Amino acid sequence: SLRWELTRYLQELWRKKQSDVLRFLLRVRAWEYRQGQRVVRVTQPTRPDKARRLGYKAKQGFVVYRVRIRRGGRKRPVHNGNMHGKPKNHGINEIKWYRNKRSLAEERVGRECGNLRVLNSYWINQDSTFKYYEVILVDPNHKAILSDPRINWICSSVHKHREQRGLTSAGRQGRGLHGKGHGYSKRRPSRRAVWKRHNTLSLRRYR
Length: 207
Prior knowledge:
The protein is of the alpha+beta class. Helix content is 32%, strand content 15%. It has seven helices and four strands, in the order ααβαβαββααα. A four-stranded antiparallel β-sheet has the order 1-2-4-3. A hairpin with a 3-residue loop joins β3 and β4. The protein is globular, with a radius of gyration of 21 Å.
C-alpha cells in the first residue's frame, strides 16, 4: 500500500544519515533547535515511522516532546577539584555518567510533565554541543487511553515515573537488560542482585 511505501521510504532515508538530503536537513534543524527551549512540546513527531515503531499513535492522549541534552562526560561536582579522599577517587574530568543520554532526556521530560507517563524515546539530531531526542508521553487520565486495551496498561499507578526507575527501553539498556544468550543470566534481575546472591553466605538454621 501507499502508506507502507512511504514508511519504508522514511526508514531508508533516516538510515542513510550521510546522504546530502539528510545532512542538509539535520544541519538546518540543529540550528533551529538551538534557538528554542531545552524542553519543548512538538505538534507531531519528526520521525513518524520511528515513533510508530515505538508505540506512538496519532490519537488523543499521545504527546511528543523534544529535549536537548548537553554532550560529553560528567565532571565531578566538587569544590576546587578537591575530593578529600584517597588518590583512587581523585579523578575530576574524565568521569562518565553510568546512564545513557537518552535515559537522561526521558527523565528531564518526565520531571517537566509529572501528569504524563513516558512511553519511549528516540534520537533526532545532534551537533557539537547537544544531542536532541523526542520523547513519547501518554496521558493516563484521558478517556481514549483508558479505553484502549493496547496501551491502558500504562495507566496503572505502578508505572508512575517509570523513566526514573530504569523501566523504559533506554533505562533497561543502561542496566544491561537488552542482551540474550550466554552469560546474560548474570544481568537479571540486576547486576547488584546477582552479585549479592553470589556473595552472601546463607546457612540453614538446623544443619
